[in-house]
Amino acid sequence: MEQYVIKGGNPLVGEVEIGGAKNAALAILSAAVMTDETVTIENVPNVRDTNVLLNAIEEIGARVERLDAHTVRINGSFIRDFNVDNEFIRKIRASYYLIGALLGKYKRAEVALPGGCNIGGRPIDLHMKGFRALGADVDIKYGLVRAYAEKLTGTHIYLDKVSVGATINIMMAASMAEGKTIIENAAKEPHVVDVANFLNSMGANIRGAGTDVIRIVGVEKLHATEYSIIPDQIEAGTFMLAAAATKGDVTVKNVIPKHLEAISAKLLEIGCEVEEFDDAVRVVASKPLRHTQVTTLPYPGFPTDMQPQMTVVLGVAQGTSTVTESIFENRFKYVDELTRMGASIKVESNIAIISGVDQYTGARVNAPDLRAGAALVIAGLGAEGITVVDDIYYIERGYEAFDQKLSLLGALIEKVSDEKEIQKFTLKVS
Ligand SMILES: CC(=O)N[C@H]1[C@@H](OP(=O)(O)OP(=O)(O)OC[C@H]2O[C@@H](n3ccc(=O)[nH]c3=O)[C@H](O)[C@@H]2O)O[C@H](CO)[C@@H](O)[C@@H]1O
Ligand SMILES: C=C(OP(=O)(O)O)C(=O)O
């Protein structure tokens, strides 16, 4: 098991390049098997989740060629197996996209029940409701979600809850249904729009992505395309908040500033300077941070995937802040770990009440999930002394070269794999 070991206290300064969006990539790589022609996808983040998904796509017969670290060519015409299940795919959430993709193209799919970060109950009832409305028989048996259809027929679907996964999954299947589908109360996240743009570039007919009503006219066939994935809103936000927590000055490059508005607005409120350029955002934290209130909401609200990082920043802001988690009921598990670093946070139901402290102190902590893991790294970067973050496996699900990008900004951080290496690092930096 690998760890990050961090000597905190250095302000992060400089420029960082953001990669392609993990949560867009996972859907787009799945959708790429919906044509028999060859699809080339650029700006694919080279992270654990995308690699697990690509291996699963290969296992069912698709040809997958990695042209370079971030470019993948996929040909789905060789798929003969519709059963997607291995120990790795069971652990990722986005395996559910292969249900929509295979059901749309082949009218059948058997995919391991999705895993993903343990941040609360994560049902897929809305996905199943959508597939059933399109005419599929869907059940869960033997650990698999199984969906079959003679044919899919366009329909009108109202999502009881705003769900990114269900919106994208239904959109994929409906792209190859007969007739018109309307999804109401659809998710509006940037990656929903990116997946719609990708499918349209393959010949799908999707309108309205980015609003809460998406209209899809099914087509018989999809075709080859070349597509570049949008920048990762959450990776970008993580570096913006790392700048704030370390009192740094970081320019986050290759981003779409509009996607970061909810994060920029909170940074301005707590006293940071935020400068927007065409495809970059600069965050300068030269004054003491002030308290604020944050509530996670579907886009364009404050993203739940930025909640732990924001809590870490508010933990060293003056006064009392609150963070309300309205999407997932169990996303404060990291607070106990942060308390070991000196944070003063009380969680009541879905609200964290945060009394700001002057500075965190280094400690040995566990990453309980992907974003909480990144948040603990941020805490370590701002802390006095040495922090060791265990279980960085989770962080590597969604951040490419996290330690290297932070090092380039002046952080003292190393990836290590045993106690000796931790001691060596500690001696080196003290
Ligand atoms: C791989 C991926 O892209 N993961 C993202 C996706 O997860 P995911 O697709 O799982 O999240 P959803 O948007 O679907 O979940 C939103 C809410 O709806 C509920 N729900 C969802 C589906 C369903 O069938 N029934 C149901 O009740 C969930 O429990 C949750 O409370 O969007 C989340 C919300 O932005 C992000 O935190 C995750 O990073
Ligand atoms: C929760 C996340 O991922 P997943 O849905 O794949 O668990 C995330 O990206 O923050």
From TrEMBL:
Compartments (UniProt record): Cytoplasm
Domain Enolpyruvate transferase, chain residue ranges per copy: 7-406
Pfam family, one: EPSP_synthase
Active-site residues, record numbering mapped to chain: 117 (proton donor)
Binding site residues for UDP-N-acetyl-alpha-D-glucosamine: 93, 122-126, 161-164, 305, 327
Gene3D superfamilies linked to this entry: Enolpyruvate transferase domain (3.65.10.10)
Residues reported in the UniProt entry to bind phosphoenolpyruvate: 22-23
GO biological process: cell division; cell wall organization; peptidoglycan biosynthetic process; regulation of cell shape; UDP-N-acetylgalactosamine biosynthetic process
Similarity-based family: Belongs to the EPSP synthase family. MurA subfamily.
Record protein name field: UDP-N-acetylglucosamine 1-carboxyvinyltransferase
Gene designation per UniProt: murA
